[in-house]
Structures are given as structure tokens and as C-alpha cells.
Specification:
The protein has 176 residues and is mainly alpha-helical. The chain is built from eight helices and no strands. The mean pLDDT is 87.
């Protein structure tokens, strides 16, 4: 019987890489498990949650009656401002009186608001008819920022809008 050495004398040693396939297989399983873990962790972190309830609700309480009363008390001065000077200057003076009334009431402007927008917002929030407010604001912007001449018709339109504004304020309880 021949010995092992005699049997394997013509056999050349070769590199056995069978273990490499197993290593790649195990690495693929580990990578798949790790990828699944990362996916599940990402899904868990980004899951939908109901929004947190705010404890402090920021809102501004308008001094409704104070603005209405000031609007009523200053009505004669507003009309007098409309009668003084040219139509352009009188409309601007009347609107500036409205701005003073709102400023004195303590309502603060939002960061993005101009004083004209503040007056318009406050008067709209008082449930006054928006048409005379819009008419006065439009006439003010025209008088303040345009260069064309303005006639007595503009002054009369402003006076009419101001009367409607005062009537609406009285209907809401101004001057009580």
C-alpha cells in the first residue's frame, strides 16, 4: 500500500478560496441587516407626530371702544382738517388724524405694516364698513404719493367717506 506522500507526489498545491465565498455571503447578510436597521431607525425618527400644542396663544386685543370713542370725539377735527388748505393737503391731514387716533389707542403695528396699513387693519377689525375705509385710504395714497392735481371732487369724496365712517361708528356704539 502506497503512503500518502507517494499518492500526492504529482499533485501541486493550489490556493483554496472556498472560505472566501462564505465570507462574502456572511458580509452580505451583515450588510443587509445593518441596512435594514438604518432604514428602520430613519423611519422611526421621521415618523409622523401630532404637532405640539402651544401653551401661549399670541393675539392682540384691540381696544375697540376706545378707538370708536376717539373716532367719534375727533370727528369735528377730522372734518375741519378736510376744510383747511388744498384738497391734497386736507386729505393727508385728515388721514394723519386717523393715524394719531389709532396710535393713541395703544395698538401696535406688526413688523411688516406701515402706519396706513395699521389704520386700515384696525378700522376693518372694528367691524366698520370697509368701503369708506378703503375709499379714504385710497384717496390718502393718491394725495400723498401722486403728482397730478386733485380737485374739490376728491375732497368731497373724502368728506362723504368720512361721514359714512362716523355714521357706522355711531351705529356700533361710539360716544357712549
Amino acid at each position: 500500500m502506497p503512503t500518502y506522500r507517494q499518492l500526492t507526489r504529482h499533485v501541486q498545491p493550489t490556493l483554496d478560496l472556498s472560505w472566501l465565498g462564505q465570507l462574502i455571503g456572511y458580509a452580505a447578510v451583515v450588510a443587509a441587516c445593518y441596512g435594514t436597521f438604518l432604514l428602520l431607525r430613519s423611519l422611526w425618527r421621521n415618523r409622523w407626530r401630532p404637532p405640539e400644542k402651544r401653551l401661549d396663544v399670541g393675539f392682540e386685543v384691540l381696544p375697540d371702544q376706545a378707538v370708536l370713542d376717539s373716532l367719534h370725539d375727533d370727528a369735528e377735527a377730522q372734518l375741519a382738517a378736510l376744510d383747511e388748505g388744498g384738497p391734497r393737503d386736507s386729505i393727508v391731514a385728515c388721514w394723519l388724524r386717523l393715524e394719531e387716533i389709532v396710535a393713541e389707542s395703544g395698538v401696535s403695528a406688526r413688523r411688516s405694516e406701515t402706519s396706513t396699513e395699521l389704520v386700515t387693519r384696525v378700522l376693518h377689525e372694528l367691524d366698520l364698513d370697509p368701503r369708506p375705509v378703503a375709499a379714504l385710504a385710497s384717496l390718502y395714497r393718491e394725495a400723498r404719493f401722486s403728482e397730478h392735481p386733485m380737485g374739490e371732487a376728491s375732497r368731497q369724496e373724502a368728506r362723504s367717506a368720512l361721514h359714512r365712517l362716523h355714521e357706522d361708528a355711531l351705529a356700533l356704539g361710539a360716544g357712549r
